[in-house]
Design goal:
Elements: H1 3-12, E1 21-24, E2 28-32, E3 42-46, H2 51-67, E4 72-77, H3 83-91, E5 95-106, E6 120-124, H4 128-142, H5 150-165, E7 171-176, E8 179-191, E9 194-204, H6 213-227, E10 232-238, H7 242-248, E11 252-263
Parallel strand pairs: 3-4, 9-10
Antiparallel strand pairs: 1-2, 2-3, 4-11, 5-10, 5-11, 6-7, 7-8, 8-9
Helix pairs in contact: 4-5
């Protein structure tokens, strides 16, 4: 695993749900999230060589977001983004709404031993109940969005069970005294340097933080990744919360990614 491997895997990580509204060209990927996410559309990819390209593509994204009925637009600034993108967003008074460190862990030696409390149980998202628990914890942990309807929950449960059985990952949910307190997702993807374990959406409900829920779902996902031949794990951890835990688990930070919000 090299820094170039990490950067390539991070740039290729462009997840969005199958019920999102997507505007995609060779230069621009704009995603309108389902209502349950509670966030404005996001520019996930912007291929710009200079300031003129940045301006042109942001105008395109602005117009598309307006046509969808939004008054704000999020723009992700990934590792290796041109300086002109960040400078333009700052000139437009864009506010940073999320900052994450891109961390990676080489799994050649196996999964690290993490100090998981004995009273925390982990269950995989394999049915409607664990799917509902996963989504409920996510809403409480991040303080945004809401639960989708029952039909959508059934669809997500079926997709997760299939992916888990095929060795492609799913979400792990941590329980304390039978109550869901933490969750974290895992997707196994093929990368240039082998299979990559993409760790996403990890969070713990506010009143249960510090009880080992994050470590429990991290350990479960890393064990699953090793069992399914992942070369390394990649996670984008929030600087204020996840980053210290990831470093203690052996992850190394390879750079920082920010998301700016523009008023349209």
């Amino acid at each position: 695993m090299t820094p170039e491997d990490v950067a390539a895997a991070s740039a290729a990580w462009l997840w969005f749900p199958d019920d999102a509204t997507v505007y995609s060209t060779e230069e621009l990927l704009l995603v309108g999230w389902p209502p349950s996410f509670g966030t404005p559309p996001t520019v996930l990819h912007l291929a710009a060589a200079d300031e003129d390209d940045v301006d042109r593509l942001l105008v395109d994204a602005d117009a598309r977001a307006r046509s969808w009925g939004y008054d704000a637009l999020d723009v992700r600034v990934p590792l290796g983004a041109p300086d002109a993108l960040r400078e333009t967003l700052e000139d437009l008074d864009g506010a940073v709404v999320e900052t994450v460190d891109v961390h990676a862990l080489d799994l050649a030696a196996g999964s690290p031993e993490l100090d998981v409390p004995a009273d925390v149980e982990v269950r995989w998202q394999l049915d409607e109940q664990t799917t509902r628990d996963h989504l409920t914890v996510s809403v409480a942990a991040f303080g945004e969005g809401g639960l989708p309807d029952n039909e959508r929950i059934r669809e997500l449960a079926a997709d997760a069970a299939l992916a888990h059985g095929e060795g492609l990952g799913a979400a792990a949910v941590a329980y304390l005294d039978g109550r869901p307190i933490g969750t974290g997702g895992l997707t196994l993807a093929e990368g240039e340097a082998g299979r990559v374990a993409l760790l996403w959406g990890a969070g713990v409900v506010p009143d249960a933080r510090g009880r080992g829920g994050y470590r429990a779902v991290l350990a479960a996902r890393l064990q699953y990744a090793v069992a399914h031949d992942a070369a390394f794990a990649l996670v984008k951890g929030r600087v204020e919360t996840a980053a210290p835990i990831l470093r203690r688990a052996g992850f190394t930070a390879y750079g920082r990614e920010q998301t700016y919000r523009l008023s349209l």
